[in-house]
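Open question from group meeting: does this chain pack into something compact, or does most of it stay loose? Before anyone orders reagents, we agreed to write out a predicted structure and look at it together. Recording both the input and the output here so the notebook holds the full record.
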Amino acid sequence: MSDSAVTDATAASTAKPATRPARPFFSSGPCAKPPGWDASKLASESLGRSHRSKIGKTRLQYAIDLMRELLQLPDTHRIGIVPGSDTGAFEMAMWTMLGARPVTTLAWESFGEGWVTDAVKQLKLDPTVLRADYGQLPDLDQVDWSNDVLFTWNGTTSGVRVPNGDWIPDNREGLSFADATSAVFAYDLPWDKIDVATFSWQKVLGGEGGHGVLILGPRAVERLENYTPAWPLPKVFRLVAKGKLAEGVFKGETINTPSMLAVEDAIFALEWGKSIGGAQGLIARSNANAAALQKIVATRDWLGNLAEDESIRSTTSVCLTVEGADEAFIKTFAGLLDKEGAAYDVAGYRDAPAGLRIWCGATVDTADIEALGPWLDWAYVTAKAA
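Structure tokens returned:
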């Protein structure tokens, strides 16, 4: 790493900054808790009770109702709480609906590649695969919408998102499957363009892991009720009974036993989101955080964005390049910040190019992003001198 990579201001700032972020939680999952969160503030009446009891089903349905309200989801779309986090929800959709027509998979980061692996090696579907390197998108104009199409709305491990839903035609023949786990509550999603969406509470809501959310549009429901896959389905994937959608799954009657503590934690986050203006309030906080981080990047010539094109750059899982850095340098860099309690979990994803990944979702306070800048300078200079 050359000395010229360090600005005069950065080189002079070898002393530890005086102010730390008040909440130095920048992990991309599980993410920071909402401001003001405390375990003692969670409702506890449902704890120790069966999820099938009146109170258990009531709280599960309340969580679903809050998600629908905040997302302004049309009545045509169903919301179910399912096992296995976002991965479980997306695999449930793949295993139950794919195989009816050809498949196209888009991959430009780690989790998209995971869906390619499932489609090729597990379901043996011989999909059309459109790939791009980390930091870029495949050519969306090349997508054949006579196929079912699988993609990540926001690539958590690359910091790249699709710019909007304009590339998804209204008259598509295939279904759109959106892994939207770092996008829901952070972008204004066009629900008429999405047949299947999945996410987990642990991202923008800062909830606990283990539970996924599956959102089905009417075309996805039609597929479920009129198509039976050739492969056997595990019990936790079964969404149809006697040829009809298992509606109970979308009314709080979960397929397996949920953690009611995790449900109450999600309810806390959803009520907080509602109190700040719903989805638009959450989106505004994410945008403000991302803008604050970009100001930091713009004034440091050793920092850059993995996604150079701003139109496809994530505003939640922002992935940064560090000039000349390798995996060992980033490990040292992130370790220094962690030891000082200045920033936790900011190293890039293990399969991504060496760099930093800083969560800018709604549960992070903009003041903490702003306070992070001087600490990045200090860690960079200190790691370089090590």
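Observations to bring back to the group:
The two ends are 12 Å apart (CA to CA).
The first strand starts at residue 78 and ends at 83.
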